[in-house]
């Protein structure tokens, strides 16, 4: 048995090596194509400072292309299991899309009103009139001091979500 490599074996080994390197490079390229872009990952989390929100005046923020309603409740507004309590302040946090057909309700005096079908939501984001089948949805959030980070599920979010199911 000869220990010399003939020409045919050399070409076979060379082809296998080139195929292995090409396959590995293809896998790396496919993984990079499947990973989300850094801009998409950064858009997944939005931090909002709640200390700047004025009582009785809802503010609208954008998270993942959706409007997020945040209302600091006044003393006259009813308490709810949906309330996010930070210190002595109570907040309503909701995705600002009507649960009927996805319209964006507008704040009118003391409630959110959906113009297209007349749906109404109270300051706690619960439906009170019209065709919406359920309250405004709750975005996932976590609380850090007086700010919230949308996109993270913290214990406060889980407590409110569990209270809404009950």
Automatic annotation (TrEMBL):
One of its GO terms (molecular function) is metal ion binding. It is a single-pass membrane protein. InterPro entries: Rieske_2Fe-2S, Rieske_2Fe-2S_sf, Rieske_Fe-S_prot, Rieske_Fe-S_prot_C, TAT_signal, TAT_signal_bac_arc, Ubiquinol_cyt_c_Rdtase_Fe-S-su. Residues 89-150 form the Rieske domain. The main subunits of complex b-c1 are: cytochrome b, cytochrome c1 and the Rieske protein. NCBIfam families: Rieske_proteo, TAT_signal_seq. This is Ubiquinol cytochrome c oxidoreductase PetABC, [2Fe-2S] subunit. The lineage of its organism: Bacteria, Pseudomonadati, Campylobacterota, Epsilonproteobacteria, Campylobacterales.
């Amino acid at each position: 048995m000869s220990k010399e490599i003939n020409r045919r074996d050399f070409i076979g080994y060379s082809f296998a090596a080139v195929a292995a390197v090409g396959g590995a490079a293809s896998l790396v390229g496919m993984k990079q194509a499947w990973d989300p872009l850094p801009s998409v990952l950064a858009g997944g989390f939005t931090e909002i400072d709640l200390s700047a929100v004025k009582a009785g005046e809802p503010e609208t923020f954008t998270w993942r292309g959706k409007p997020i309603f945040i209302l600091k409740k006044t003393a006259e507004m009813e308490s709810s299991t949906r309330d996010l309590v930070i210190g002595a302040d109570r907040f309503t946090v909701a995705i600002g899309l009507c649960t009927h057909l996805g319209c964006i309700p507008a704040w009118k005096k003391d409630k959110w009103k959906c113009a297209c079908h007349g749906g109404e939501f109270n300051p706690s984001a619960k439906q009170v009139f019209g065709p919406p089948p359920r309250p405004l949805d709750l975005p996932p959030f976590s609380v850090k001091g007086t700010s919230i980070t949308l996109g993270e599920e913290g214990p406060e979010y889980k407590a409110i979500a569990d209270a809404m199911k009950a």
